[in-house]
Design a protein that fits this description.
The protein is mainly α. It has three helices and no strands.
Length: 76
Amino acid sequence: MTAAMSEHLQRLAQALDVEHQALVEHDVHALIRATGAKLEALRALDSTPPVGEAEQLQALAERNRANGVLLSRRRR
């Protein structure tokens, strides 16, 4: 994994952490910022897809799905 790829994955992980915290705390402004950061990280990863990082990507995908569950519960 290149340093740039590692940085992109780290940025995505951090954005997911902030997004989760914003959902738990019902902080709309933080959620908007975190979602923007997540989308930026995903765009960067999309432009240079990671190779050999299936486990880390799977873990990040699971965290994203968990955040989606929290968001759907919040909307009810």
